[in-house]
Amino acid sequence: MANNTGTTILALLTGAAIGAGVGLLYAPDKGENTRKKLNKEAKKAKKRLDEQVKETSSNLSESAKSAKLNFESKLEETLSSASYKADDILSAMEEKLEALREKNAKFQKEVKKEEVKTNVKNATA
């Protein structure tokens, strides 16, 4: 939208400058006076164009700042959400690991019992 406004204003200023230049060239005045008028009008057009460039640049700068703040906010939300999910995953993994340790301990006890039974059977036989 700002680009269309800038293009429109630039077209209007260019048209005004060309129109003023053509008008001055056909005006019944001395060459020196005509050159002064052309110079004066060119300076006015340059000043208006510089002001428009500053305004457009300021608008773009504000838009960029707003977009940056919005991006940073969304990034922070995403990171926070990911952090909570990571904590949930770690908790679930720790619970599974503890369950596996308990099963392993039971299995080791059963293996020891079987070894003892086998040793006792072999010793008595």
TrEMBL record:
A Pfam short name: YtxH
Membrane-spanning parts: 6-27
Comp. bias intervals (Basic and acidic residues): 29-54
Statement: the UniProt record of this protein carries the keyword Ribonucleoprotein: no
Entry annotated with the keyword Transmembrane helix: yes
Protein keywords: Coiled coil, Membrane, Transmembrane, Transmembrane helix
InterPro entries documented for this protein: Desiccation-related_membrane (IPR052928), YtxH (IPR024623)
Ranges for region Disordered: 29-67
Chain coiled-coil ranges: 90-117
Bias (Polar residues) ranges: 55-64
Protein name per its UniProtKB record: Gas vesicle protein
Organism: Mesonia mobilis
